Amino acid sequence: MTGVFLELGQRPDEPGPPIHGTASYPADVAARLAADAAVIIARYPQPRSALLPLLHLTQSEDGCLTPAGIAFCARQLDLSPAEVTAVATFYSMYRRTPTGDYLVGVCTNTLCAIMGGDAILDTLQEHLGVDAGSTTADGKVTLEHIECNAACDYAPVVMVNWEFFDNQTPSTARDLVDALRAGELPKPTRGASLCTFRDTARVLAGLPAAAHEEDQSLPGDASLAGLRFAHRHDMAAPAPDSSGSEAVTTREGQSAGDDEAHAAESAKDEPAPGPSADVPAGASTPETDPKATDS
Where is the signal peptide (predicted)? Predict the structure, then answer.
């Protein structure tokens, strides 16, 4: 009888290397992270809801996911390491390999590719002497091919630690990485100021970072084009209580306003409506669905 050998571990088709690195934190590091974790966890009604920001916190310490970070999150939230790992490996913003000071991501999805994204990535790979997914020898830049950044109106887009550099060319992208490696911090086209990858992870965890300045920018011209068109043509979405039978309604008595008003409208921060206890319109109930039966 012939035996079959099965090697257990990461699936061959699973993206990214396994999580590896230091297994535990020194006592002083663990204590410092625990103090930060307590601040984060206190913001949530259920502790396990803090898992994503806690993963960013550990990434700010290690520069990537490590067994020490996974174990730390598990202890803080009373989860198993397997539960933490399952979440951590789902999201691409959690890195599995050490990351340089600046994560340079080049989008090559459809519109960016058409506008030159592929050429930018090829140029940077040759210029930096690394393949996508690798870090330069000086540890400054990690080059990454990334998926759509929802910034197609500024294609092709390069991101540095998740901040936008719009309308790039191979030449401007080369200048960008040269500046980063020289210790300069180019100003993003829009968004917050640049800081290191580890500081960025700390900001994403919801904690202050010394070199980080808040985003004070407003949406740019390309993002506002549709809104301005709607204002010029007296168009608006149906009112919340509308049946939705009409695609648009008119804005009687309203002027288009200036650009700052448009920008403020497109970026206004309002809470989403809470869940309703009512059965949604059209949903079946035991009274309306003859197939429904008592449980």
Answer: none
